[in-house]
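Protein in question passed on here:
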Amino acid sequence: MAKSVDEFNKKRLRSSNITVVISIALVLFLLGLMGLILINAQKYSDYIKEQLVVNAYFDENYDAKDSVKIAKLEEETFKKVQTLAPVKKATYISRSMAATEAKKSMGIDSDALFEENIFPSSIEIALKPEYVDPAKIDEAIKVIKSVPGIIDVKNDSTLMVDVYNNLSRILKWIFGFSLLFLVLAVVLINNSIRLKIFSKRFIIKTMQLVGAKRRFILKPFIIEAIILGAIGSLIGLIALGGIWYYFTSQIGSAFVQDNNQYVWLVILVLGVGIFISVLSTIFATWRFLKSNVDDLYYS
């Protein structure tokens, strides 16, 4: 009889542990998925911002005999522009290149309609994402204009502001959903741990009544919580890695684009799983340690 009771208790304990691990794995999988979406949304946002360029123009009026001298000055100016703080990437466009681009855009193959060097040479500048901010774009343009040799800087400020505001709005929503999933992770993991500890409330109280100290009673529960939290987190991360590998292979993207961010995401997911499990275990166990025997029947 005693043996069958022990076997029943072991099965119930095993089932309880599996339920907790699965709950942690599922919740952290969703949390990690939101983290991946947030990381890549930020990268995509930065990529789009880098496509919004400004054009810095050189003086188009100069004597043809000074062309060699002017070319040298433009080269020096171009090098200075590349070193500016707001500049992510700079591309030099000569007069002939500008004319070629104009022909392509107008669908003209002949030089008969306009002179070859009718357009001034310029520099196409992709700003760093943080300088696409409407509050900083004017500062970036002033810095570029201050470079000797640059006479004018043009940009589509309305387009930049619209794109920046829309991207910021999307990122805020994604960040908000990520925080929501973090709160849900805390609540769901906490509930799973509390149910597990609730099934052991009589054992906890019995140990206390026979003289065991609270620290002694808590220790095995905390160790178990660390193990279950780590196992659940690892299962969630493995599932997340599998889904992410399948997704990136389908779209032809790199599995890992930024080692640092992905490593921090793994650490965060693992840390959240263990931390919440341990914290929930301490609170749930402490509750029964402070309660009366009669309260155990009504908890």
